[in-house]
Amino acid sequence: MLKKIIFKFLFSFVLITKVQSAENGGMPQLNPEFWISQIVWLVTTFGALYIILSKVILPKISDNLESRRSQILENIEIAEKQREESEDKIKEFDKIILNSKLEAKNLFNEARQKVLDDIDKKRSELEKNLEEEIEIAEKEIQNLNKSSAENIKKIATETSSGLIKQLIGEEINKENISSIVNDLTNNSKENRKNV
Amino acid sequence: MAANPMNQFNVYRIGPEIKLGNVDISFTNASLFMVISTIAILIVLNLGAKKKSLIPDKLQLLAELSYSFVSKMISDTAGTKAKPYFSFIFSLFMFVLFCNMFGMIPYSFTVTSHIIVTFVLAAFIFIGVTIIGFIKHGLGYLKLFVPSGVPMVLLPLIVVIEIISYLSRPISLSVRLFANMMAGHTMMKVFGGFVVSLGIVGGWLPLSFSVALTGLEILVAFLQAYVFAILTCIYLNDALNLHH
Question: What are the boundaries of each domain within chain B?
Answer without folding.
Answer: 7-240
